[in-house]
Design goal:
alpha+beta; 186 residues; 4-stranded mixed sheet; two-stranded antiparallel ribbon; 32% helix
């Protein structure tokens, strides 16, 4: 009976520590502000409470819910690593994010937690980037302002229920432009 009790206690302790480790609010002071360094692409971000998404939101508390900043950082890293030529390094600082859609609390309490997707609320991101070659020479650097004002006209399937689909598509387009292989003779 005692071994069973020990196993049960360990399982409960593991479940409790796993549940408390999950970040549920992007403004949590204990939430990470960078992805762990791994590979040629590093992504960091400012305090999300200063992002346009929260400062200009119709529902700041709902906009802060989730782990969407880290999810976008992971996505950006994965996409950039696939495109980045061998030997190059990319450092990205996410300075600002404004997600597609917005909260419109004037529609009443039934819709106060609903993100309304309209073309007047396009996704936007501001990044500071530094691209270096294998010798550490700077290839490109500076601020990049990403925006997709035609995000509702894209090839987004109605079956895609990813709440970050518009931002991810914007990241894909930027990565393809920023890390495009130079054309011969250009």
């Amino acid at each position: 009976m005692k071994p069973r009790l020990v196993v049960l206690s360990l399982a409960l302790a593991l479940a409790a520590s796993t549940a408390s480790a999950a970040v549920r609010n992007v403004t949590d002071p204990n939430a990470p502000r960078a992805l762990p360094e791994a590979g040629p692409v590093n992504v960091r971000w400012e305090d999300p409470s200063k992002f346009s998404e929260l400062r200009y939101s119709g529902n700041r508390w709902e906009a802060a819910r989730g782990n969407w900043v880290q999810d976008l950082a992971v996505y950006l890293r994965e996409r950039a690593q696939k495109q980045l030529p061998s030997g190059q390094r990319l450092d990205v600082d996410i300075v600002d994010i404004r997600r597609a859609g917005s909260f419109e609390p004037w529609h009443g309490p039934n819709l106060q937690y609903t993100r309304i997707i309209r073309d007047v609320y396009p996704p936007r991101m501001t990044l500071n980037v530094r691209l270096t070659d294998a010798d550490g020479n700077v290839i490109a650097q500076g601020e990049r302002k990403l925006s997709d004002t035609a995000f509702l006209m894209g090839d987004s399937s109605s079956l895609n229920s990813d709440p970050l689909r518009f931002e991810k598509r914007m990241i894909d387009r930027w990565v393809n432009r920023e890390l495009a292989a130079p054309q011969p003779g250009a």
